[in-house]
């Protein structure tokens, strides 16, 4: 899909504040509200904008710790992959999981209340998923950069 300058300005405004009123987006794009509404609808229909969600502070919700867990499966058979990926989808403390290249098969982003909770998540659930061979954890000390906005070059 080709995005023109107006589409990019609309997306930039929505990335800044997804609850921004259409009239305010229109002001920023030098368009009137009606074409902005149509463009937003088209961006949604075309799957460029896939949803709107609040950005939450995990600490305010009791999650003081974040970790990245690298996981290897013992065999890359469909049964292991399906079982592992379903267990990850079902785990509410896994906030992201990606299949990756390199020495490990998956990188899993976890939130936890504290180190004991992380230990429970890792030792009582992740390690026990049938087909999991290796698990390596790294605890996040500080977020240097964290953004959801994508570059619009």
What report would you give on this structure?
- About 40% of the residues lie in helices and about 20% in strands.
- It is elongated.
- Strand 2 (about 95-100) and strand 3 form a beta hairpin.
- A four-stranded antiparallel sheet has the order 2-3-1-4.
- By secondary structure, the chain is an alpha+beta fold.
- The protein is built from five helices and four strands.
- The chain folds into two domains: about 5-45, Arc Repressor Mutant, subunit A; about 60-140, 2-Layer Sandwich (Alpha-Beta Plaits).
- It starts with a helix and ends in a 14-residue tail after the last strand.
- Keywords: DNA-binding, Transcription, Transcription regulation.
Topology, please?
Layout: H1 5-16, H2 22-29, H3 33-45, E1 65-73, H4 78-90, E2 94-99, E3 106-112, H5 115-126, E4 132-139
Antiparallel strand pairs: 1-3, 1-4, 2-3
Helix pairs in contact: 1-2, 2-3
Domain HTH asnC-type: 3-64
Protein name: AsnC family transcriptional regulator
Organism: Novosphingobium lindaniclasticum LE124
Radius of gyration, whole Å: 20 Å
Low-confidence stretches: none
The DSSP helix count reads: 5
Q: What structural class do helix, strand and pairing data support?
A: alpha+beta
Straight-line distance between termini = 14 Å
Number of domains: 2
